[in-house]
Design a protein that fits this description.
CATH superfamily of the largest domain in chain C: MetI-like
Shape of chain A: flat
Shape of chain C: globular
Largest sheet of chain A: none
CATH topology of the domain at 58-123 and 152-289 in chain A: MetI-like fold
Oligomer: heterotrimer
Distance between the termini of chain A: 38 Å
Low-confidence stretches of chain C: 259-265
Number of helices of chain A: 11
Helix content of chain C: over 70%
Largest sheet of chain C: 2 strands, antiparallel
Order of helices and strands of chain A: HHHHHHHHHHH
Strand order of the largest sheet of chain C: 1-2
Mean pLDDT of chain C: 84
CATH class of the largest domain in chain C: Mainly Alpha
Number of domains of chain C: 2
Strand content of chain A: under 5%
Radius of gyration of chain C: 22 Å
CATH class of the domain at 58-123 and 152-289 in chain A: Mainly Alpha
Structural class of chain A: mainly alpha
CATH topology of the largest domain in chain C: MetI-like fold
Order of helices and strands of chain C: HEEHHHHHHHHHHH
Chains: A mainly alpha, B alpha+beta, C mainly alpha
Radius of gyration of chain A: 24 Å
Low-confidence stretches of chain A: none
Number of helices of chain C: 12
Largest interface: A-C, 93 and 78 residues
Chain lengths: 292, 343, 265
């Protein structure tokens, strides 16, 4: 078997590579195509025949927008919290001693904990009759379960924010500590060697380096959090409904005609995911050069 | 400017958790270049980092421009350490990089801009201020790192093998830049290199780091001409080494016979060392030798000869090289023979 | 934050320790607590009943656990087999094409499971896969293959193909090269890839719910049902059973991967 010349091999490699990627992405693409068809009446439930009525109707519903805004806001808060903590952990424990290694291991330990387990623990802990409330009662701060501010099923979504942040922290901490351990340390030393004090070093050198490296994972984690079903199902309120829950609600609506609405939401969800993934890769593309 | 810019006395620095450098002492004046040589792993980088405050080290005295810096963190020592592979801040422009030391010293914007331009001029990169580091070549990065290192005019500049990863032409470029910037405003320069020729070219003083101590600190001419010990002489690569004994002052007995030597150590067992230049092929000499091999180098050809079992390397100067296997007569200059006690 | 044991660092260490270990401890207590009502801080009775039922092979948790185990193992295997060539092909892409490929591969991982399942439901139903374990397996495979592909892309990016070229120039055929040179080098990445695929299926809930239609009962689904029903003790038992293999699988894979430059996640 003669080896084709390098240019042709290169072309073959590119074709196979993109083909492989397309294969892996095909279920999502199929989902988008079908949802678009179902949302515009070309397939699925409800009246047949192409029409954008359903699209405009659903996208015009205030409940849908409330859901979307609430979902993104909750995911963003959780991600912000987790990112700040991750940077704090990475900076506080960036040396190579035993204490630092222990701290970093502990920070990353919850990484494989399933979302469901995290949400279950959160419910048991944060519900109005949960452990936290009982501790408050025992300490004399609360007179009864009703006194406990609702952290689950609440409009503010505090319980959900905390749980999502808890789940995101190990991953972001891992990325942050890896960044610091590789180039971060060298950059820091260079800055110190040039006369910068600890605060200036962080402000002018370490932080610019860190946030650029963290941006892609943060975008990814944000997308995950927004799409999370388990956390929403167990911790989120029923008004406004988180987007995954709203989608499911419409999809299982006994009124078959309304089921088609779900596909509009699915489309929205998949489009947003596509945008997030695109942004994620684009940022990675731009910052790889900077990280050298 | 005769005050010592850098004064080190009794410095010890560990290699990780193992014992490292012991009891090093030397002094460098402003405007002077101190070149540190030694085998790989000898601890040259550790020494520089200890002076910079980036690695642990203790000393009886460690002073920069008269101030005790031992208890001070790196940024307050008035010392700048430049790593072997220059690390430019990737998110800042060249101008931003070079201006960094001024920014952290809170120098006013206008003055800082001017000094950045001065520093860039010194390394011939005046128009590069707005470029990003990733668009620069290796040599350019080196020069930017140099400019950045001197812009704050530290009293002491520590350069760790600054020319090692450069090709010869680039090496010359950066070397000239280093000399130029030092002439600008005269910091004390401590330079690490493993290239002995470079040490001779650049150094006002050369320090040899061997066996975790400074085996010798001297002007290049003194060091190359009069190595202080056998180890240093071996480190310098002096090829002709003959064991024997000093029978009486001025006479060295060995397999080569009795050699006249101008300066000897006291009577007893000894090792004689001399350069190829110390041995010449003459019409009539004190010993006969058979030519075994000719060695052709860029600037010099030497002959390996056999004197009754002992191999010597002989410089040929400008004369026509003798044929291999021919017999020649040798004369060894008594002034150039060094004797040392055996190890 | 100067000294090794400054107040801030100690507080941070305690906080991290608490955050990492408290959930497990709490779940453990909940799993053996009987009649633990508000406002008691400790169960009034401890009972090992949930555990006994589980370990004796009875009850919903056991059945669901077995289902989950099979599905996860299957997903891990499929993911490895498919992701290996995919990852290798992707690793050959440079520059913007590489990023495009990575973005496409990332889509099934980032897509909200509800949206993904809803979009796929129709094709699964029409293929007769709805409500059946095989359907759920394939559904799990979608994000698993994608995630493990990304992982293998990383593996092959750092892979020096010159060892294979060396083998070929020494006379080995493509098949021999793969068997004697490539595969042994990939042992650890394969173990870790399997663990990743396993974990994605093991912890998966919405895909199972939608594609399985409630007929395929995996461990997460049962735990969820028990929580909704207020059966805290059984739910906590199930959650622990969910948790422990996840930790073990990943710890084992990372231990196996130690010494190689590739670290997952």
């Amino acid at each position: 078997m003669a080896l084709a010349d390098p240019a042709r091999r290169e072309l073959k490699a590119v074709r196979w590579g993109l083909l492989a990627a397309a294969l892996v992405a095909s279920p999502v693409v199929a989902g988008v195509v079908y949802s678009a068809a179902a949302a515009t009446g070309l397939a699925g439930f409800g009246p047949h025949g192409f029409s954008t009525d359903r699209l405009t109707r659903v996208l015009g519903e205030p409940a849908v927008w409330e859901s979307l805004v609430w979902t993104i806001r909750t995911a963003s808060l959780a991600t912000l919290l987790a990112s700040a903590l991750a940077v704090l952990v990475a900076m506080t424990f960036r040396r190579s001693g035993r204490v630092d290694k222990l701290a970093r291991t502990l920070a990353v330990l919850p990484l494989p904990v399933p979302h469901l387990v995290a949400a279950t623990t959160a419910v048991l802990l944060l519900a109005q009759s949960g452990l936290l409330s009982r501790l408050g009662f025992a300490a004399g701060w609360l007179a009864g379960p009703a006194d406990m501010p609702p952290l689950v099923y609440d409009r503010a979504g505090l319980g959900m924010v905390l749980t999502l942040a808890w789940k995101e922290l190990p991953f972001l901490a891992l990325v942050a500590t890896t960044l610091l351990a590789t180039r971060g340390a060298a950059l820091e030393e260079t800055a110190r060697g040039l006369g910068a004090g600890p605060w200036d070093t962080f402000r002018l050198v370490t932080w610019p380096f860190l946030w650029r490296g963290l941006l892609p994972p943060v975008v990814a984690v944000l997308a995950f959090a927004a799409g999370s079903y388990e956390a929403a199902a167990m911790l989120a309120p029923s008004d406004p409904l988180a987007l995954p829950l709203l989608t499911l609600e419409r999809y299982t609506d006994p009124d078959l005609a309304r089921r088609g609405d779900a596909f509009v939401l699915v489309l929205v969800g998949l489009m947003l995911t596509g945008a997030a993934v695109g942004l994620h890769e684009w940022v990675r593309y731009r910052t790889t050069e900077l990280r050298g | 400017m005769t005050a010592a810019a850098l004064l080190i006395e009794g410095l010890s620095a560990p290699f990780g958790s193992a014992p490292g450098l012991e009891d090093l002492s030397f002094e460098v004046r402003s405007g002077e270049r101190f070149v540190l040589v030694g085998a790989s792993g000898a601890g040259k980088t550790t020494l520089l980092r200890a002076i910079a405050g980036l690695a642990p080290g203790t000393a009886r005295r460690m002073e920069v421009a008269g101030h005790d810096v031992a208890p001070l963190p790196p940024e307050r020592r008035d010392v700048v350490y430049l790593q072997q592979t220059p690390l430019l801040f990737p998110h800042l422009t060249v101008g931003g990089n070079v201006g960094f030391p001024l920014r952290v010293r809170k120098v006013a914007r206008a003055e800082a801009a001017e000094r950045v331009q001065q520093a860039l001029s010194a390394v011939h990169l005046e128009s590069f201020a707005d470029r990003m580091p990733r668009t620069l070549s290796g040599g350019q990065r080196h020069r930017v790192a140099l400019a950045r290192a001197i812009v704050a005019r530290p009293a002491v500049l520590l350069l760790d093998e600054p020319f090692a990863s450069l090709d010869p032409s680039l090496r010359q470029e950066v070397r000239e830049a280093v000399i130029a910037i030092q002439r600008e405003y005269g910091p004390a320069l401590v330079l690490v290199t493993h290239d002995l020729d470079e040490a001779g070219l650049l150094g006002d003083q050369v320090g040899v780091l061997l066996g975790r101590r400074l085996a010798q600190v001297d002007r290049p001419a003194q060091l190359f001409g009069k190595p202080a010990s056998l180890e240093v002489a071996r480190f310098l690569g002096i090829p002709n080494e003959v064991p024997g004994r000093v029978a009486e002052p001025g006479c060295f007995q060995s397999a080569l016979g009795a050699l006249r030597v101008s300066r000897t150590i006291p009577a007893g067992p000894a090792i004689a060392l001399f350069r190829p230049e110390a041995v010449r092929i003459t019409e009539r000499g004190s010993m006969s030798a058979a030519v075994v091999e000719l060695r052709h180098r860029v600037h010099q050809t030497t002959a390996i000869v056999d004197v009754g079992g002992t191999r010597l390397e002989v410089a040929l100067g400008g004369t026509r090289p003798p044929a291999v296997r021919s017999l020649v007569q040798l004369t060894i200059d008594p002034d150039q023979i060094m004797t040392f006690p055996p190890p | 934050m100067s000294g090794v044991l400054s107040a801030g660092r100690i507080a941070g260490l305690l906080g991290l320790g608490l955050s990492a270990l408290l959930p497990m401890v709490l779940l453990a207590i909940w799993s053996v607590g009987d009649r633990w009502f508000y406002p008691a801080l400790w169960p009034s009775r401890l009972t090992a009943e949930s555990w006994r039922t589980l370990l004796s092979g009875e009850g919903r948790l056991w059945a669901a656990g077995a289902t989950s185990m099979l599905l996860a193992a299957g997903t891990g295997a499929i993911a490895c087999i498919v992701a290996l060539p995919v990852g290798r092909a992707l690793a050959r892409l440079d520059g913007w094409r590489g990023h495009l490929g990575a973005a496409m591969t990332f889509l099934p991982v980032a897509a909200p499971p509800v949206a993904l399942a809803t979009g796929l439901q129709f094709s699964f139903l029409s293929l007769g896969l709805g409500g059946r374990p095989i359907g759920v397996l394939l559904a799990h495979a979608v994000p698993a293959v994608a995630y493990v592909s990304l992982y293998f892309t990383g593996v092959f990016t750092g892979f020096d193909t010159r060892v294979e070229e060396e083998a070929r120039s020494l006379g080995a055929s493509a098949g021999q090269t793969f068997r004697f040179i490539t595969l042994p080098l990939l042992r650890r990445p394969l173990a870790e890839g399997f663990a990743l695929g396993f974990l994605i299926s093991w912890a998966q809930m919405p895909l199972t719910l939608l594609i399985g239609g409630g007929a395929v009962r995996t461990l997460p689904i049962e735990v969820f049902a028990f929580v909704e029903a207020g059966q805290d003790r059984i739910a906590a038992t199930g959650a622990l059973v969910l948790l422990v293999p996840a930790l073990v699988a990943l710890a084992a894979a990372r231990l196996a991967a130690r010494g190689t430059e590739v670290a997952a996640l």
